Amino acid sequence: MTSEASAGTHQPLTSEQADASHIQVHAPYLAAHPELLDAPPPTEPAHVWCTAKLPDDVWWRSAAVHEAAHALIAWALGLEVKRLSLGSDRTVLDGGGCWVDGEGDAQNYTLVWLSAGHAQANWLTAHGYTHPELRRCVLELGASGDQRIVDGYAAAGFVLDRDQAVTDALQILAEPRAAAALNALAGVLLIERELDTQRINETILVQHAVRPPASAVWIPGRRLPLVAAPPR
Prior knowledge:
- The protein is α+β, with helices and mostly antiparallel strands.
- It has helices spanning 15-32, 56-76, 106-126, 132-142, 144-155, 162-174, 176-192, 197-205; strands at residues 4-7, 80-86, 96-103, 194-196.
- Helix content is 53%, strand content 9%.
- Helix 3 (106-126) packs across helix 6 (162-174) and helix 7 (176-192) packs across helix 8.
């Protein structure tokens, strides 16, 4: 049996925490490539090794894809996306936010949060930003808040499978209508910066996206009710 739950993306990091996390993520790579510390920004997409080095248009679009992926997976699982937002400028530590509400197993919510970093990284790869350190930056830094939410679920005793969640989420997003809906939702978010439930739903539905059958998402054999989520 499941219970109603409500969650925002995560508790934002302070500037100091974000800087420390960023340095920690790249420390092994920079130790092997110290010349990059003083190098000019790379001009070839495949050479971009950090999200901070992305051009503005690419950075914002990938951030919009990240937030849109949260929303689309939540919608696909029958949850309500109450609000979707994109930050005001690149100095804002969180690129945006997604607020989700509804009855769902902890595994459903794990799909919602863990889908976005992979969707963002895959979008960057598809657009020529193929550096493995950049992917690591997205998944370990850009999606760190999402990971912390799932860590909170596990610490509270909820049964979940992270690897299966990523597999299931990417399978949902690979469906052509879902992929079109993700692209459309990211595009609208990029322009309007904040979307309510009605705007989110109409943007998804105009692409004729459909919700997958329940069997498309693995659910733990022992379900514990998701009665609360970490505060935003």
